[in-house]
Amino acid sequence: CEDVLFEAEMQKIAKEMNYSETTFITSKENYDVRIFTPEVELPFAGHPTIGTALVIQQELIKRNIKMEHLYWRMEMWF
């Protein structure tokens, strides 16, 4: 979260990774998440959201979290 990646850089990384979706945590305060396929950014995708939320909760903060996507916010408890 310390280093800023621009949209074009995130898209390039997602293309290089070549996974169906690649997530980027873009904000340390709200743990905002952006999701990219190798070709485009997605407004939402369930599996990468759940996976990213689990990593944030278990590895980074160890508490309930709020995440923001392009169009809405959500809270998750594990």
TrEMBL record:
GO cellular component terms, semicolon-separated: cytoplasm
SUPFAM superfamilies: Diaminopimelate epimerase-like (SSF54506)
One MF annotation (Gene Ontology) recorded for this entry: isomerase activity
Transmembrane segments: none
Protein's name according to its UniProt entry: PhzF family phenazine biosynthesis protein
InterPro entries according to UniProt: Phenazine_PhzF-like
Classification via Pfam families: PhzC-PhzF
Gene3D superfamilies: Diaminopimelate Epimerase, Chain A, domain 1 (3.10.310.10)
Lineage, top ranks: unclassified sequences, metagenomes, ecological metagenomes
Gene source species: marine sediment metagenome
